[in-house]
Amino acid sequence: MSRWLLAAGILSLVTTGVHLFAGGPDVHVPLLDNSPSPLLQTYVSMLWHATSAVLLINSLALMFAAVDDRYRVPLAAAVILQYLAYAALFMGYGLAYLGSLWTTPQWLVFVVTVGLAAIGARSGGRPVSNLSA
Q1: Helix or strand or coil: residue 30?
Q2: Contact between residue 11 and residue 113 where contact means Cβ atoms under 8 Å apart
Q3: Do 61 and 75 meet the contact criterion of CB atoms below 8 Å apart?
Q4: Where are the alpha helices (DSSP H) in the chain?
Q5: Do residues 4 and 117 touch, judged by C-beta distance below 8 A?
Q6: Dihedral sign of CA atoms 45, 50, 53, 54 in order
Q7: Whole domain around residue 44: which residue ranges?
Q8: pLDDT (tens digit, 9 = 90+) per residue, 26-80?
Q9: Pick from 9, 133, 104: which is nearest to 62 by CA?
Q10: Is the residue at 133 inside a domain?
Q11: What is the pTM of this model?
């Protein structure tokens, strides 16, 4: 088992919880309250919950990769790429529109998760070809 990938998966799961339970009242609900039409409210909710689903699926993928060497690298790589994109978006929009990285600090948790996952993907477990030996 890769403890690094397990740690990345747990951090990702915590991030999912923060997104749902802290971000909901702070971001999702105000967006709904300020959306001018039912159509935009629907899109806001769909995008919010799609993000929730992606975060949860990525958390599960990292935890699965932690315990199954066969899928360690491809699962970790897929999550790493997604979380690098998330980090870049938070950093880019934070700097471009708000003038600071710290107004949208979510990038930091994605970078830390990527670091843990990258270490986990490169280390641990025996190669698949040696499992039957």
Answers
A1: helix
A2: yes
A3: yes
A4: 3-21, 23, 29-34, 38-67, 72-93, 106-122
A5: yes
A6: negative
A7: 3-124
A8: 999 999 999 889 999 999 999 999 999 999 999 999 999 999 999 999 999 999 9
A9: 9
A10: no
A11: 0.88
Count up the domains in the chain and report the number: 1
Q: How far is residue 26's CA from residue 21's CA, in Å, rounded to a whole number?
A: 9
Q: Which tokens go with 12?
A: 């990702």
Distance of alpha carbon 94 from alpha carbon 105, whole angstroms: 8
Q: For residue 103, what are its two tokens?
A: 């107004």
Query: Nearest to residue 57, comparing CAs of 7, 12, 1?
Result: 12
Q: Is the pLDDT of residue 21 over 90?
A: yes
Contact (CB, 8 A) for 43 and 49:
no
Residue 131 forms part of a structural domain: no
- In the chain, the N- to C-terminal Cα span, in Å, equals 18
51 within domain boundaries = yes
Write out the two tokens for 131.
């499992």
Euclidean distance between CA atoms 44 and 38, whole angstroms = 10
Distance CA 120, CA 98 (A): 34
CA 103 to chain centre: 19
